[in-house]
Amino acid sequence: MIRFTNVYKAYPNGAMALKDVTFHVSKGEFVFLTGHSGAGKSTIMKLLFAEQGPSGGEVRVSGYNVSMLKADDVARLRRRLGVVFQDFRLLEDRTAEENVAFALEVTGARTDTIAARVMRVLTQVGLSSKSRAYPRELSGGEQQRVAIARALVNDPAILLADEPTGNLDERATRGVFQLLRDINNGGTVVVMATHDLDLVRQTVYRTIEMRDGSLVYDSDLDEAAAEAT
Amino acid sequence: MKLLTREALLSFKRAPLLSVLSVTTIAFSLFTVGLFGLVAINLREALKGLEERVEIVAYIFRGTPSETIAIATQDISAFPEVREVNYVSEEEALRRARADLVEFRDAYRDLQVNPLPASIEVRMKEGYGDAATVGRVAERLKGFGFIDDVRFGREWVQKLDHLRNLTGLVGLVIGLAFAAVAVVIIGVTIRLTILQRAREISIMRLVGATDWFIRGPFLLEGALKGLLGGLLSLVLCYAGYLLFRDRSGGTLSGLIFFRPQELVLIIVFGVLIGLGGSMVSVGRHLRHV
Questions:
Q1: Residue B109, exposed/middle/buried by CB under 10 A (0-12, 13-18, 19+)?
Q2: Distance to chain A for B200, nearest Cα, Å
Q3: For A90, which residue in chain B has the nearest alpha carbon?
Q4: Do A91 and B14 touch (CB under 8 A)?
Q5: Could you give the percent of chain A with pLDDT greater than 70?
Q6: Residue A78 and residue B208: Cβ atoms within 8 Å?
Q7: What residues of A are in contact with residue B203 (Cβ under 8 Å)?
Q8: ipTM surpasses cut 0.85
Q9: Were A106 and a residue from A131, B72, B123, B209 both cysteine, which residue would form a disulfide, CB within 3.0 to 4.6 Å?
Q10: Do residue B67 and residue B15 come from a single domain?
């Protein structure tokens, strides 16, 4: 589903954000992307949803080569992805259900199917009773659930979550994390960037650790290496 | 399509002040163009009236046989530029002079011999009132043997010509300048809207909206503002027109307003300004969101 091959990313100011990064993510996987701020997690995320292209190497996401995308292909790729951020990125002047419906409307979904699909994902994230609430009337955890519902409503093959629990208290963090695990259990690939090591240690999911732009640890490869010796 | 319209209309609700600002700027730009247009068409109308009065007077040698004059009059009537030929006999000339020049009535009454010559008055067809054509016809008239002298107020005709050309030119220049100003103002307004909605646009991108989908509402919004601005400018123009006509105390009662096709043209112009302004601005600023 995701294939990074010798990827480099240099920013215009000369800083190297990624150096020779290679990893693959297969169907159904849940992957943690860890590391300090500035280690390259967010850059990997941006390459994954084609916000930027790589300076070198190849990034393939769901069959698309990110460095060769035209504007329309970017849009098409993003319809197969769900993206969730630390700051939720909800529209303040729309209710929860309108925020979710927005993601369907902009992709030209059939109007008569929108309401049902929106209700289905809001129920999935446990917010069916607050569908008419505006973001400011919801807690941080609830707002992130709305954002996740919006990411899910297009039935994405891959869900990208960039520090989704960064702004949440412990209880809300656990709730959102559990929701992401449930989504993964439904077959969706989840890539979650986080620096919350407690969360990472609680589970046995694959972990990729970044440091200064280089991939320094991949639990899959290292376990395979450990088994080999 | 429904969504596109809704998003475009929503922007009016979301940013009423900005929307009102852009509609009024378009309206005022077009209002100015419209007012100038009104002055121009009224001037043109007035010039047409004057043009109709452009006439060539050819004085006839005393003693020319009336048959010669009758044949010549028919020949002159057949000139393609000529609308009307009038023969003014010596007696008619004197009668007119008596009626027109009241101060000299006594002097004319005491005359033993009529000193006024007979003449042919030639009026030009519409569109042939310019100096060159009038001069050419005058030359041809001089070619007739019985014509003594030809008068047509050459300078007057030439001045009319210049005035008309100048009106057209000034109208064009000022109209274009104001259109440019309007495009810039709309561009700035759209820029503000885009900055204001940067968050929304970035989210639209994120969930997979195509560029055209994002642009659509902005373009429609621009076109709608242009349409409203155009309509508003017509209302203003009409109000200004009525004000001028009715406050002038009758001297300007003959003022005319735009014809239907000119009204449509102004509205189309407004829509084009709105669309153009938003197209330029959306193209330039969406890249930075």
A1: exposed
A2: 7
A3: B203
A4: no
A5: 97
A6: yes
A7: 89, 91, 102
A8: no
A9: B209
A10: no
